[in-house]
Structures are given as C-alpha cells and as structure tokens.
Amino acid sequence: MAPYTGEEKHITVVGGGLAGSEAAWQLAMRGIAVTLFEMRPEVMTPAHRTGHLGELVCSNSLKAVRKDNASGILKKEMELGKSLILESAYKSRVPAGGALAVDRALMGERITDAIENHPNIEIRRELVQCIPQPPAIIATGPLTEGPLADELSSGAGVPLYFYDAIAPIVETDTIDHDHTFVASRWDEKKTKSSDPLKTEPDTTPSPSAEEPQRGDYINCPLSRDEYEAFVEDLLNADKVPPHPFEEPKYFEGCLPIEVMAARGPDVLRYGPMRPVGLRDPKTGRRPYAVIQLRAENSQGTAHNLVGFQTRLLYGEQKRIFKKIPALRNVNFLRLGSIHRNTYLRAPDCLNEDFTLKKAPGVRVTGLLCGVEGYMESTAMGWLTGVMAANELRAGNVLELPPVTTATGSLYAYIRRPRMKDEPFAPTNMNMSLLPPLESPGKKIKKSQRRLLTAERAEKDFESWLERINIDS
Ligand SMILES: Cc1cc2nc3c(=O)[nH]c(=O)nc-3n(C[C@H](O)[C@H](O)[C@H](O)COP(=O)(O)OP(=O)(O)OC[C@H]3O[C@@H](n4cnc5c(N)ncnc54)[C@H](O)[C@@H]3O)c2cc1C
C-alpha cells in the first residue's frame, strides 16, 4: 500500500448506500473529487432491489420527526448539516402520521440523480474486491459483498454479525376493505395508563357518520380469538433455519414477529400489533389487536405490514397472513426475509477519525462502523465525509461534535473503549445515549426533560457547525 500523505484532493468512496452516498455528497460539496464505487445493479445484495443509490432495504420509514424524540433530534442535526439523504426523504414523503415515511423508489431516484449530476463525483458500478488505496471511505454496509468482507473482518478479529429481517409488502387493491379501517394511532396520551392495553373500551366520542376517521394507516383489526390463533400459528410455523454454526442474534429494535410471539402471548399485542389509540368505527371500540399497513409509494398502490419482519418460510407466510380477514385474498409483492448483518468491532479496529488501524487513511462508516438504522448510518456517513473533506482541504483534524448532540453521542458510543470480553453491538439513536441535563433546577417532568435535551442538542450542534465552519 502506498504511503498516505494526506495531500490528495481526490477520494474513493466504496458503497453507494445511505452512508456512502451521504459521504460522497458532503465531500463533493466541499470541492473534493470523488470516485464512488457501487456494485449494484451488476452485483445485487440479497436485500436491495434496484440500482438506486441510497436505496432503503426494508421499512420505508425513517422514524419519528418529533423534535423531542431521539430520531427527531438526529434528523434536525442532519437538516442543519444539509444532508442529501434527509432532503431526498422529505421530498419523497408519504403520509405516515408523525413518522417520516417515503416512497422508496422516488427517494432512490432523487439521490441517484443528485449524485450522478454532481460534477465532482464519478460513479463506477463495480464490485470492489479489497481495501482501496487511501484516501478512501468504505461504506459497504451490513451486506458487504465479496473478498472485501473477509479482508475487513480479518482486521477486526472475529467477524461480527447480527440478523435483520424484512417485512412483507402487499398490493393495496387486493386488501379486503370490509375488514379494515383507516386511522393513524392518535393521541396516545389519552389512553396512557400503567397497562396501556387495559383501558378498553375506548370511551372517546365516535366521529359522526359524515366525518370519516382520518388517518394514514390501513388497520386490520383482530378479535381476541383471531389474535390467539395467529400467535399459535406463528409459534408452530416453519422458519428459515440459521446456518448451524451461527447463533441467531437479533437486533432488539427489529425482532421478527415469531421471535416476539415466542417471548409471550401478549408481546405482539404490546408491540407492532398494539391497538392503543385506535378505534374501529364499525364497533366503536378499540380492537383486541391490530395489524397496521403503511403506504409504500406515493400512489398508494402498495402497503407494507408495519413491524412484521419475519423469517417464516415463504409458504408459511402466505398461509398464516392470509388467515387475517383483511388479507384473505391479498397479493404479496414482497415476502419477509432475514439477512445476516456484518459489522466491525469499531472500538478495537478503528482510530478516532474512523480510519482503520490496519489501513491508514481508509475510513469505515455506516452500519459497518457500529450504528444501526437508516438515519444513524446516514449521520455517520455525513460525519465521515465532513471529516475527510476537512482533512483533505485544510490538513487538520476536525473538532468532534459534542456528545450532547445526537451525532456526537453516536460517535461517542462507537468510540467508547470496551474491555476485551465486553460485547459490542451496533446501536440506534435513543435518548439514553445523550448525557443527562446539567442541574435542571427544580424537578421537571420527563416530557419537559426530553424537550430541553433536544433543544440543547440543536443549540450545541449549531454552535459546533459554526466553529468548524461547515460551509467553507
Ligand atoms: C435486511 C435488512 C433490513 C434492514 N431494515 C432496516 C429498517 O427497516 N430500518 C432501518 O432503519 N434500518 C434497517 N436496516 C439496517 C440499516 O439501517 C441499513 O442496512 C442501512 O442501509 C445501512 O446503511 P449503510 O450505508 O451502512 O449500508 P447500505 O445502505 O447497505 O449501503 C451499502 C452499499 O454498498 C454496496 N456494496 C456492498 N459491498 C460492495 C462491494 N464489495 N463493492 C461495491 N459496493 C458494495 C451495496 O450494494 C450498498 O449499496 C436493515 C438492514 C438489513 C440488512
């Protein structure tokens, strides 16, 4: 490998997913020439479906936008940082209550278009086989393909992995709307109690007949008998077996429904099938359980089963899901599946600036570096891109974002040194990553604390952007 001097004004980015596209964009916007390698559509991963840059592989939701929510805080920072991925998501938004859900095809087209037309970016549709020459950024994600995966993991010691599952998508016209109602989960505060499912019947006044319930989700209600039969079916269904040498480790925020069902009869009813905040206009009551369908595209011709990631065999998925009254005759456009996600043990094998200890000048970012989630991967791509641009242009080390910001707290999580036997798993953005408020004075409510924490993050991120002179 040629010695890295840091004088080059050109950089290689490998992987045109969320993190790689964002990194390439941030570099190009700062005048750095980028060669972006993306293997699709020549070589596909088991989860991607198109050749689009920045394709979302599973859910079409980038989670909440609320200001006082951890995902919302991260989005605000990426908005301030002029993230291409976030801007493209907002421009491709489909209705989904308080979540930022998108038409994934439109979003992918927008990102691809922007990158293809940037004069500083050259796209090469090629599989990269080995760690590239510096300066470079590797953002090949959880489904890193080919010998590159082996080369990376040999530097990280044991290859690390967890499983991620994909939820099915159905054709909207084939849903039986005699068994659905349209509504967003609304005003959950009203139904909050120590046991949110023990507030039936819902006493909220019914809307008048002329005033249909508005909402962004198609809800498929289940009676108690239907729910119990569904859980029983999940427990007895045939699943795709993991490789015998692999322990099926799941990401807790994205558990397959059959794993949730195995944890207890009510786990699904407290999870993706929770009926809280919903009332079936046909009965005037809250259903016992519900399956929510969210629009997949802006035309509303496809809907995904929210939170229904699964590793049931395809035949079993069709058999069991078609027992749900609203889905009896449904046409599946995509069935659920499961994939092994690879990542690096970042605290051991990466330096502070995301460079690989074994390959100076080569950074690793996105899910590979120890975060989980679309926006989290994007944020790490953004930070790596800004860091690399700063180094290439100014030759100095970028001041890191404060730990009180979402971006800085994700970085701090990745970097925190671990004991030899201490596990390391990718994290998504959550409030526990942000340090508590300093002496908030008198005792304040949790909701107020969250809001103050969000405001502190935004203020600190803005000041940091000013200090590092982001637009120069
Ligand atoms: C099956 C599955 C489901 C997931 N579901 C969700 C979800 O619902 N919500 C969520 O927030 N997160 C989800 N994730 C996790 C994570 O947020 C996404 O994987 C996210 O896309 C990671 O971003 P990334 O940029 O690191 O990787 P990616 O977006 O996967 O981008 C990596 C890119 O590198 C390319 N590539 C790979 N190897 C090579 C090579 N050798 N040469 C050239 N190009 C290469 C790939 O084609 C891809 O375009 C899921 C992950 C998986 C695997």
Give an account of the 3D structure:
- Helix 2 packs parallel to helix 13 (about 445-470) and helix 6 packs across helix 7 (about 255-265).
- The relative contact order is 0.17.
- With about 475 residues, this protein is α+β, with helices and mostly antiparallel strands.
- It has helices spanning about 20-30, 70-80, 85-90, 105-115, 145-155, 225-235, 255-265, 265-270, 315-320, 345-350, 375-395, 405-415, 445-470; strands at about 10-15, 35, 60-65, 95, 100, 120-125, 135-140, 160-165, 170, 180, 215-220, 290-295, 300-305, 330-335, 335-345, 355, 360-365.
- It has two domains: about 10-160 and about 345-470, FAD/NAD(P)-binding domain; about 170-335, no CATH class.
- Strand 16 and strand 17 (about 360-365) form a beta hairpin.
- The strands form four sheets. The chain has a six-stranded mixed beta sheet, covered by helices on one side. The protein has a six-stranded antiparallel beta sheet with strand order 10-11-12-13-9-14.
- About 30% of the residues lie in helices and about 15% in strands.
- Residues about 185-195 and about 200-215 have low confidence and may be disordered.
- Bound molecules: flavin-adenine dinucleotide.
- Flavin-adenine dinucleotide binds near residues 40, 47 and 140.
